[in-house]
Amino acid sequence: MEPRAKICTEGEEEARMSPVATVRRVAEVLGAEEKILTVLPLPVGVGYAVSASAGIAAALALGAQKHKVSELLALAHEAEVRERTGLGDVLAISCGIGLVARLSPGAPGIGRAECKQLPPSISLISVAAAREHAGEYVRRYTSMRLHEAAEPIIAKVSESLDFHLFAEEILRFNLENGLIRSVIGEKGEELVLRTPGLITAYGKKGLVLLAVERSRAREAVEHLSPLGYSLFYLRPSSSSVSLEVV
Predict the structure, then answer these.
(1) Residues 6 or more apart in contact with residue 227 via CB below 8 angstroms
(2) Measured in Å, how far apart are the chain's first and last C-alpha atoms?
(3) To 10 degrees, the CA torsion angle through 185, 190, 195, 200?
(4) pLDDT tops 60 at residue 14
(5) What is the spatial distance between Cα 58 and Cα 23, in angstroms, rounded to a whole number?
(6) Mean of per-residue pLDDT scores for the chain
(7) Which of 53, 59, 132, 147 could lock onto 5 through a cystine, CB 3.0 to 4.6 A?
(8) Which one has a higher pLDDT value, 18 or 230?
(9) How far is Cα 90 from Cα 95, in angstroms, rounded to an integer?
(10) Mean pLDDT across the stretch 134-161?
């Protein structure tokens, strides 16, 4: 998803060490002394994989002159695992575009992920309702044995990465297991299901993500505003991670 997290080095006086744990660990490992300005368009700890994306950005910004990109992605993955902020988000982000399936675990270059562009006719809208540590989320998810229930769906979707198949299966899985309801309540779920142009929706940690018809995105945002939570208009990513020198 975009907009992207950004890390700027040698910033102005307001630049400081990032509040994101993965960024701090990456900087420590690389022995970085630069001032760091962290630009995060999305909140941390809600489910946007901000810790992973910020860790990747920091690794590239601080280490690109001395290290290979593959080494820096592996460092970002290690930072996230050690900080317990996620399990495989760095691998997924390194694939770079649209719908991603993680097929085997590990850092980029060790684990395997496949990705496919999303249809250009969709927009993404998210509802940021609460914060939850990744460890708590994983414990809650596994206690409900949802990882087992999801296995056949993941296998089915991974064969083709067809977005329409994914949209159908993920919405059904979420409704059957109350995952959207667990984030924003029963009335919130009902409101989401009536969203104009809704294609699919799912709940993760403290957020609900909706894919809607692009032509009805503004209408969808207005429809969701009574929920009372922060809403973010997002774009499907169009490329992998990048380093810009300015």
Answers:
(1) 127, 129, 184, 188, 191
(2) 23
(3) 80
(4) no
(5) 6
(6) 90
(7) 53
(8) 230
(9) 9
(10) 90
pTM for this model (two decimals): 0.89
Q: With 80 as the cut, is the pLDDT of residue 11 above it?
A: no
Nearest CA-CA partner of 184 in 173, 171, 193: 193
Cβ-contact 4, 243 below 8 angstroms: no
Pairwise CA distance, residues 21 & 19, whole Å: 6
**Tokens standing for residue 56:** 């990747």
Query: Looking at the DSSP assignment, which residues form a beta bridge with residue 108?
Result: 111
Q: At what angle do helices 50-63 and 21-30 cross, to 10 degrees?
A: 20
Concatenate the DSSP letters of all residues of 19-88 into one string: S-HHHHHHHHHHT--S-EEEE-SS-TTSSS-HHHHHHHHHHHHHHTTTS-HHHHHHHHHHHHHHHTS-SS
Q: Tell me which residue of 60, 63, 42, 61 sits closest to 51, measured CA to CA.
A: 42
Whether the bond between 3 and the residue before it is cis, its omega within 30 degrees of 0, is: yes
Amino acid of residue 119: P
Q: Exposed/middle/buried for 167, CB within 10 Å: 0-12, 13-18, 19+?
A: buried
SS3 110: coil
Q: What is the residue whose two structure tokens read 């770079």?
A: 96
